[in-house]
Write a structure and sequence with these properties.
The protein has two domains: about 180 residues, Glycogen Phosphorylase B (Rossmann fold), CATH 3.40.50.2000; about 180 residues, Glycogen Phosphorylase B (Rossmann fold, 3-Layer(aba) Sandwich). Helices cover about 40% and strands about 15% of the residues. Helix 7 crosses helix 12.
Length: about 375
């Protein structure tokens, strides 16, 4: 029985897949089990222009008085070039109609860079993020607040809720422990970053896999998700001659992602340091895999409790050493998988995440 309704308000959609929309869909499904409906709305400024998009928002928002609106923040959702200053107009519109505003920060820090335009973008994002903090009743952060460089003591209306894997059936896979029918140890890579980062990530992965393959002759590398097909030729070129079977699967359905993960032995995550907001890394935890990743400023105790084996990017060859250790030591690998399974149930399942949202959606609604 639905007792309460809320709205998830999104900006521009990401392409080819929108992780924030997937997050809202999974959150909405889990909240429904707690009697809370979550409708997804967009401010389609990139298609209609800001003037028409805000006019449409004003019309829709008249029906949102006293309802919770969960504004999903990433810098590029509210500006094509990462200057999201117009989000303040969105928040003013919601305030005027009497909506109850929660801002969900998927980007938790402003972008950085060495150029003048990067410094201007950083300032604009920091200004927008602080304005959003001042305008909302609750701020939801996907990393612990103490990890943030711009958090202030008077921001007492903040809560930490980690992201879950954008995989509705992940829990079904997490308890499995199988023996590969082909006798090969299967290394998963779930998505690579496109653009300027692609070459570096492919280089890191292939160096590590080549090192492991120098000691183990039964390896398979399975690459899938965003930009995997863009990187296929580089993977095959750099692993040419190595005793490694390579499979590149491209974008997959949620069910096929789970099925593919379930047939792997370890997930390599090299898209920057691991944190509780990186859903492609959390996917490995959700599927009960050992995850190999780098530690960083946003890496919290929740991640350290999971089955994560850390490598040091600054230490030459360390990724390969850690990968070899995980693959060679069956008991160590099984213990990491067990820790991932436990962490999924304690911290990262959508049931647990929805319960955290329901705490403030229901409690504050009574005030």
């Amino acid at each position: 029985m639905i007792r309460q309704g809320a709205i998830a308000l999104l900006g521009r959609a990401d392409k080819p897949t929108d992780g924030v929309e997937e997050y809202c869909n999974h959150l909405g499904e889990a909240l429904r089990g707690r009697g809370i409906s979550l409708a997804i709305e967009r401010v389609a400024w990139e298609k209609r222009g800001w003037r028409r998009a805000l006019r449409s928002l004003r019309r829709h928002a008249r029906a949102w008085k006293d309802s919770w609106v969960l504004v999903q923040y990433t810098a590029l959702a509210w500006s094509a070039r990462g200057f999201p200053l117009r989000i303040s107009r969105v928040l003013r519109t919601l305030n005027r109609v009497g909506a109850r505003i929660a801002v969900v920060y998927h980007d938790v820090e402003p972008f950085t860079g060495p150029r003048l335009i990067d410094r201007l973008r950083h300032s604009a994002q920091l200004h927008a993020m602080r304005q959003a903090m001042n305008a909302c009743e609750v701020a939801v952060f996907t990393v612990p607040m103490e990890k943030l460089t711009w958090m202030q003591p008077h921001y007492t209306h903040s809560v930490f809720i980690p992201v879950g894997a954008n995989l509705p059936v992940a829990g079904q896979a997490a308890s499995r422990k199988r023996v590969a029918s082909d006798g090969k140890l299967n290394i998963a890579v779930f998505s690579v970053t496109g653009g300027d980062f692609l070459q570096r990530e492919v280089d890191d992965i292939t160096r590590a896999v080549r090192f492991a393959a120098s000691r183990l002759k039964n390896l398979k590398l399975t690459v899938f998700g965003r930009h995997s097909e863009d990187a296929e030729s580089e993977f095959r070129k750099r692993l040419d001659g190595a005793p490694v079977e390579i499979r590149v699967l491209g974008l997959l359905s949620d069910e096929d992602v789970v099925r593919t993960m379930s047939n792997c032995d370890v997930l390599l995550f090299v898209r920057g340091p691991i944190s509780t907001r990186r859903s492609s890394a959390i996917a490995g935890i959700a599927c009960g895999l050992p995850v190999i990743a780098a530690e960083g400023p946003e890496t919290s105790s929740l991640i350290k409790d999971a089955g994560v084996a850390f490598y040091t990017p600054q230490k030459k060859g360390d990724l390969g050493e850690v990968l070899l250790h995980v693959l060679e030591d069956q008991h160590y690998r099984a213990d990491l998988a067990r820790r991932s399974w436990i962490a999924q149930h304690r911290f990262f399942s959508w049931t647990v995440i929805a319960a955290r949202y329901a705490d403030f959606l229901e409690t504050k609604s009574k005030l």
